């Protein structure tokens, strides 16, 4: 597995400075927030030029929401997602991380024909089938992230996200497994990871406190070993707040996570 750090968690001024610092901390990759680089793609190229550390993925940064009620907003979201996916591929990143919608449903409840979630599921599959060919041509990937129930109503579990990816049936669409969200939503984290391993394209780690791994009560070993046993060799990215001095805390947490693999 390869290990990355979200650049926004590093309290330095520029993207280039944060990328340099993450490389010096011993990580293999950097996860970049999408909005600034969508507006200024050259900043992404400049930040990684001459660096050993690689781009792992672009996190969000698209306008609107894929599951917005208004078609204009869905179209705007899709155009940005495809642009960011192509940007990620250009620098060897896995793709763009996409949350279909935050909070409550924005589409109507049309029960008894379809409730809002059933409509969202069908709509998301249709949108991804429309976007996937362009993503495949660019080499970029769309990585669906399920969140816990306090951040979105759906999808919350790996099974729910994998159901969408399986219906789309494109190599350009995968899912993200986030240990913080799984700690809330999954009854058996290793089993959920093993069951959905074929669709997992990216992994986030944070402890139950949302701080760096090793500072809370999450047992990372069973899940990480389930991923390794399933053949996952992709990115494990630290999406966490940092307790303590980041220059000391992050290398210690990275060593802790690697130790959990056995």
Features of the shown structure:
single chain, 262 residues, alpha/beta, TIM Barrel, eight-stranded parallel β-barrel, 10 helices, globular
What does this structure look like?
This protein is α/β, with parallel strands linked by helices. It has a single domain, classed as Divalent-metal-dependent TIM barrel enzymes (TIM Barrel), CATH 3.20.20.150. 44% of the residues lie in helices and 15% in strands. It contains ten helices and eight strands. The chain has an eight-stranded parallel β-barrel, surrounded by five helices. Helix 1 packs parallel to helix 3 and helix 4 packs parallel to helix 5.
In short:
By secondary structure, this protein is of the alpha/beta class. The protein is 44% helix and 15% strand. It has helices at 15-24, 34-39, 41-48, 71-90, 116-138, 158-168, 179-185, 189-195, 221-229, 246-260, and strands spanning 2-6, 29-33, 54-59, 96-98, 142-144, 173-178, 200-205, 235-238.
């Amino acid at each position: 597995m390869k290990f990355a750090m979200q650049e926004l968690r590093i309290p330095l001024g520029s993207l280039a400075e944060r990328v340099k610092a993450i490389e010096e901390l011993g990580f293999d990759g950097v996860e970049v927030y999408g909005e600034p680089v969508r507006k200024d793609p050259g900043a992404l190229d400049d930040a990684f030029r001459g660096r050993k550390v690689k781009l792992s993925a672009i996190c969000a940064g698209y306008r609107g929401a894929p599951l917005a009620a208004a078609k204009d907003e869905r179209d705007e979201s899709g155009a940005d997602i495809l642009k960011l996916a192509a940007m990620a591929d250009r620098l060897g990143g896995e793709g763009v991380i996409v949350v279909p919608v935050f909070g409550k449903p924005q589409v109507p409840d049309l029960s008894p024909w379809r409730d809002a979630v059933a409509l969202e599921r069908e709509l998301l599959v249709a949108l991804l089938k429309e976007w996937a060919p362009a993503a495949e041509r660019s080499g970029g990937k769309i990585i669906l992230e399920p969140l816990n129930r306090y951040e979105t109503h759906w999808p919350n579990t790996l099974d729910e996200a994998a159901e969408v990816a399986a219906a789309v049936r494109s190599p350009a669409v995968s899912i993200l497994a986030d240990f913080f969200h799984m700690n809330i939503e999954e009854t058996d984290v290793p089993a959920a990871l093993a069951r959905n391993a074929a669709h997992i394209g990216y992994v986030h780690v944070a402890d139950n406190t949302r701080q760096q791994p090793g500072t809370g009560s999450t047992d990372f070993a069973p899940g990480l070993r389930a991923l390794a046993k399933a053949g996952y060799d992709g990115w494990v990215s630290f999406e966490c707040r940092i307790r303590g001095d980041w220059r000391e805390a992050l290398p210690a947490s990275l060593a802790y996570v690697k130790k959990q693999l056995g």
